[in-house]
Design goal:
homodimer, about 400 residues, alpha+beta, L-amino peptidase D-ALA esterase/amidase, Ubiquitin-like (UB roll), 2 domains, 6-stranded mixed β-sheet
Chain lengths: ~400, ~400
């Protein structure tokens, strides 16, 4: 899959961003809009404390159509009760009025600190006049949704004459069942909403649901796709493959830019009893603090990989069938650590993408884990990240 | 429960420790012995890659009698195949010969790096003559089993005229289903082995199984109790309470001395649908990297507590019934963050024991989580802790 070197928005989509004053400085408010209503699908966090925008978003996506996304960073509007839900609705209404569209076609997202109310006056002033600033450059709006991300994230790709673009943010509190990860996907292809929903779920299962920066699961996670049909119909299958690819690439980007991360960690499991067990083992390895610090330190410590596999006590694991490779080098055969060239493995662990391949030898199940190393940077960011 | 200010071994137990050369320096080999065979019970890790000493220990504990424990630190004898099992047996045999007792009465433990064979010549030289050094001071033997612990751990208590003593080590790779936590309990009380087993399981469920330093589960965890009966029979119930108390205190000591830890974190959940769900939620909060870094940073960030409760997607949680207190101060009522004196909470978070109390309001289930904060120290120790 060839991603554009200079990612762009699809036909009929524009966006804008402002500093409205929620952050002390920097862009903190983004608006994405289609010229016409779009078929839409969305997935939200499974956390029992979903943010107010998620609660309202779940209602709206039942209509299967969206035309705009309004998103702010720094305050997530979670655990704010009925007042928070009213704030979320009002934020959407302000964007709808600004664009002259029905409020039901606006999706809201908020990311940041939990438990604080949105500063509605600042948001109102921020949204007023924003429609007149809509343009083709996706980068400012990608910046407007950043929290502790170190860089904005936009990807785009061509498929069947249409463009598919993803704008995302991540950084921390990210684990399968999604993340304070926000990913908005836009395409000028025409696809019916049920098909969009099906393809989005499939792509998410193979990407965002494999992603874990720190095993914590945000209350605001949202992945949404808007298809405005400007280019006309496309074949679902090449489109689905493009969606799979862009979601996987975005997941890896989010992991690589995880809080404090210096390396991407990719764990592949084969030979599990079934796919759920394959995913469970991959997740255990990618989440293990001892594996993550080993990846950071760059020192091969094979025992930690075996420990992380073995602690999945509910999975069918037969110790003497387990094999493992680090950066392609066999380090465990028949459940036992085998001799390997330590200097070579240490050298391979200095690369910025680390791959651990595990074969369990008990079935046909597979699993993928996408994560990152655990560093002092994560501790610094999260012990200092103030609630106020 | 009053623990002895100067913990001591019970009647008829002695111990000794040596530097045999597995570590570059410091004690690395400990022997604990009873003058007579003792009734015994033991619990081992549920990790699918149990160490060789665990494999042999599981066999031996079926005999329900032990007379000695031989333990080394620095190499764990895990993932070493058949040869490792032979090494474990030989280590036990050497100790049995040294003590002049049957080898079936010796329990072996090894803790440290996974995937390396034990240096048997060093161990053999280390064990030779060790019996002549057996004495009453528990501290050197407690030092001999330390890995990244910062201090040796011994507790003792009187119960019904008998003494109950615990010698433990912990530090990292510690989570419920136990830990590379080794805890050896010795008593001069007389209790039948089945009763010992029952009381040990109960005590462990309320202590070691609630303990999580980093969510990783070691391949070497062992908790064993030896009762040599020198003082005669005791009532099981006050003894059971004493065992509960000493196991809980040892768990908290292990957590407080977790790798890089500066604070003990105690999470109590009530009102869960049932006890397993109560434990699941407590574990989620105590393991959450974002809660752990918040505890380290001492800044109240209530949203992280809600996030960690809410990510237990399989548990029955009704958001608007959830209440939470930090150091006794209500911070969440009806699932919503309530105003509280932030300066006061910040002050209370500076204490060295942090308590988070959660009420789920859906049932009668309870759970306890014992853990610690997550700091740069954990990262430093575990990114540098070399496999060789």
């Amino acid at each position: 899959m060839d991603f554009h070197e200079n990612p762009r928005l699809p036909e009929g989509f524009r966006c804008a961003a402002r500093h409205c004053g929620i952050k002390a400085s920097g862009l903190d408010l983004s608006l994405f809009a289609s010229d016409t209503p779009a078929h839409a699908a969305a997935l939200f966090t499974r956390n029992h404390f979903p943010g107010a925008p998620v609660l309202v978003g779940r209602e709206r996506i039942r209509g299967r159509r969206l035309q705009a996304v309004i998103a702010n960073s720094k305050i997530s509007n979670v655990a704010t009760g009925e007042g928070g839900v009213e704030d979320a609705r009002r934020m959407g209404l302000l964007a709808a009025r600004e664009l002259g569209i029905p409020e039901e076609l606006v999706l809201m997202s908020s990311t940041g600190v939990i438990g604080e109310r949105l500063p509605m006056e600042k948001l109102e002033r921020g949204i007023l006049g924003l429609a007149s600033e809509l343009g083709d450059d996706p980068w400012p709006a990608a910046r407007g949704i950043m929290t502790t991300d170190t860089e904005p994230k936009v990807l785009s790709v061509e498929v069947g004459g249409a463009t598919l673009t993803a704008v995302g943010k991540g950084a921390g509190m990210i684990a399968p069942n999604m993340a304070t990860m926000l990913v908005f996907l836009f395409t000028d292809a025409e696809l019916p909403a049920p098909r969009l929903d099906e393809l989005l779920r499939r792509a998410s299962r193979k990407s965002f649901e494999c992603l874990s920066v720190d095993s914590d699961t945000s209350t605001s996670d949202t992945v949404a796709i808007l298809a405005n049909g400007r280019i006309g119909p496309v074949e679902p299958e090449p489109f689905g493959s493009a969606l799979d690819a862009i979601c996987l690439r975005m997941s890896e980007w989010v992991a690589r830019d995880g809080e404090g991360a210096t390396k991407l960690l990719r764990v592949r499991v084969v030979g599990a009893a079934d796919d759920p067990e394959g995913r469970r083992v991959a997740r255990s390895v990618v989440d293990s603090p001892l594996v993550k610090t080993m990846v950071y330190g760059g020192d091969p410590n094979v025992g930690r990989i075996l420990m992380a596999i073995g602690k999945c006590v509910e999975c069918r694991i037969v110790a003497d069938r387990v094999e493992a490779r680090v950066q392609g080098v066999p380090v465990v055969v028949g459940g036992v650590r085998v001799p390997y060239d330590e200097a070579r493995v240490r050298g391979l662990l200095a690369e910025d993408t680390i791959e651990i391949d595990i074969s369990l030898g008990v079935g046909e199940g597979r699993g993928l884990g996408i994560g990152c190393d655990l560093t002092e940077g994560y501790i610094r960011e999260n012990s200092a990240y103030a609630s106020s």
